[in-house]
Amino acid sequence: MITIIAAASENNALGKNNELVWHLPNDFKRFKSLTSGHHIIMGRKTFQSFPKPLPNRTHIVISRQENYNPEGCIVVNSMEKALEICPKDETCFIIGGGEIYKLGISYSDKIELTVVHHNFEADAFFPEINLEEWEITKSEFQSKDEKHLFDYTYQTYSRK
């Protein structure tokens, strides 16, 4: 199963200058819990935004740069090649950024989206979800608190 996992604001913002524009510790915990032990597919810029590779995950990085070969990663030049590497009987996750989500959404079976209830200025955006192709199968609202400056909702979409 191919699952997109993302956090985006109400205006589909993902981030600016290769950084998130919010801090939601519970969403980070959820991301870690869902993706640990799995293959994760990302673009080069997303990978480079990490201080180091994420533990207990197989990193597949899509890049057009020749000779790009970060230690501990599998580098490919297309979404198709990335998906070929993923075990067919396991869930793999597409984790961003914006261009990679656009490339991957047509291959995906499921979307795990955290909607941050705010509008942000951004330079990377999550693609529009076509509700004729997708349906929300689970939704869980989370209120802001001392560690979370914004309300947010975990939404699970399944392909119709």
TrEMBL record:
Reactions this protein catalyses: (6S)-5,6,7,8-tetrahydrofolate + NADP(+) = 7,8-dihydrofolate + NADPH + H(+)
One Gene Ontology cellular component annotation held by this UniProt entry: cytosol
Assigned keywords, A-Z: NADP, One-carbon metabolism, Oxidoreductase
UniProt GO molecular function: dihydrofolate reductase activity; NADP+ binding
InterPro entries from the UniProt entry: DHFR, DHFR-like_dom_sf, DHFR_dom
Residue ranges of every copy of the DHFR domain listed in the record: 1-159
One GO-annotated biological process of the protein: dihydrofolate metabolic process
CDD domains the UniProt entry points to: DHFR
Pfam family, one: DHFR_1
Keyword Transferase in annotation: no
UniProt-listed Enzyme Commission number(s): 1.5.1.3
Pathway the protein acts in: Cofactor biosynthesis; tetrahydrofolate biosynthesis; 5,6,7,8-tetrahydrofolate from 7,8-dihydrofolate: step 1/1
Listed Gene3D superfamilies: Dihydrofolate Reductase, subunit A
UniProt similarity note: Belongs to the dihydrofolate reductase family.
Task performed by this protein: Key enzyme in folate metabolism. Catalyzes an essential reaction for de novo glycine and purine synthesis, and for DNA precursor synthesis.
Protein name, as recorded: Dihydrofolate reductase
